[in-house]
Amino acid sequence: MSARERRWTATVTVATGRAELARWLARALAPEAAREVPRARTTLRQRGASVELRVEAADAGAMRAALNTYLGWVALSLATASTAEGTAVPPPA
Question: Nearest 5°: CA angle at 38, between 14 and 77?
């Protein structure tokens, strides 16, 4: 997808509360962000205790699919980290 085709953008910031957890989350998501979801592209950046996902998509359907995919991976990754640390993280609403 060329830059000219992208019409939709969204930025999601995941505040983890800890820089170490944000670093781990960014590393967990990096392989997926390196691949293109059909008609969408995602960049990933750690900022202190937060991880920022920027999604660019060709259309509303591609944006919905990309956001659902990435938010699912974020939820799964944080739940995995919580289980590994023995802490409780509420499930996504």
Answer: 30
Residue closest to 51 by CA, chosen among 80, 35, 29: 29
> What domains lie within the chain, and their CATH numbers?
3-79 (3.30.310.50)
Residue 55: how many other CB atoms lie within 10 Å: 23
- Whether 51 and 13 have beta carbons less than 8 Å apart is answered as yes
pLDDT (0 to 100) of residue 43: 93
pTM of the model: 0.79
CA 22 to CA 34: how far, in whole Å?
Answer: 18
